[in-house]
Request: fold
Amino acid sequence: MARIFLDHNSTTRPLPEVVEAIARHWRESYGNPGSRHAEGRTARRALEDAREKIAAILNASPKEVIFTSGGTEAINLAILGLARQRPATVLLTAGEHPAVRQSCLRLQERGWKLQFLDVDREGRIRIERLDELPWGNIGLATVILAHNETGVVQDVLPLAEKCRERGISLHLDAVQAVGKIPVDFQALGATALSLGAHKFHGPRGIGALLLKEGVTLRPRQLGGHQEADRRAGTEPVALAVGMAVALERWRAEQTQRDLHVRSLRDRLERGLKSACDPVVINGSVQHRLCNTLNIAFPGLEGEALFVALDLAGVSCSLGSTCASGSVEPAPALVAMGCPPEIVASSVRFSLSFENTDDEIDDAVKRIAQTVGRLRAAHNGDARAEFRRSIRRPEPIGPNPG
Reply:
């Protein structure tokens, strides 16, 4: 039985041309890009060429691109590096990625306060309530641009305008957005924006933080002058090239990928609605990534469904892979006001342009069979429990009557 991978928000398979480019540059650009000899200059040219290509696609200056080890490091660098020494308030949503939440909790340990933005039942920021925030106390804002669990895409322009007017740094977690939707760093009006290559068929181990030119931040790593003194450590040239190749491939195929993946997601959604009723779609239907479907199967436990689907050869997720092992309800769904039974029975399917119609049809069958079997077992357990609850207890000793 062939496995069907529907967990592309956790990671994606590097494209063949990405792997080839990395291998070639491991062979040819092996020099330290900080060295001034010929081998170092060759590596530096490859690194800066990758930086320029990434910057052009995201409408940033090459000077604004800081290479990191991935999206998590980029997020940490932005939040902890932009936060001023004097404690203030950090603005965020309750459904942020663990990398953002943990960074903000670290600020809280330093005396910062957390202020959560209200979201509506679709998971989108309630723009009408921005004026009610205690803006005089806010020193930093961080918001996820496209949600990893629900796929909901935020309208961040009103928030960015409020921050710009008050001189407040705004960080956007665009790890799930870059390589899936157009991202224009200048137009978004953010101070910083984080991304990771393995979310768009690039290599793991490389990401970037876009930092508005002229803005300074405290580096998290010390020991070198790389990345304009903002991130110490010898740059992984081959991985940077691989990230640029993956992003260029997305730009060249953006329209075709979007149409194909959207068609697959809608095909999956229609199939599950028909075969697994009742189901509930979580998050905005209109404002979401074309590849993400967060869906609840009322009456089931998400953990049990996840395990059963894995055994059936369908890879999905209960939410953020970085939160694996957590038994807490998904914060994003709780913030949206989803009932506990919906939160508990929700799983995430995330697709790629590499998936096919046949795979989706097969996935619907496997999921429907699994859901049906689990519901039958659950109903059987419920009926048995009901019978036990009404069974008369056996008399003890002589019958007094």
Summary: Residues 237-275 form the longest helix (39 residues). The CA atoms of residues 118 and 129 lie 8 Å apart. The two ends are 64 Å apart (CA to CA). Confidence is low (pLDDT under 50) at residues 382-401.
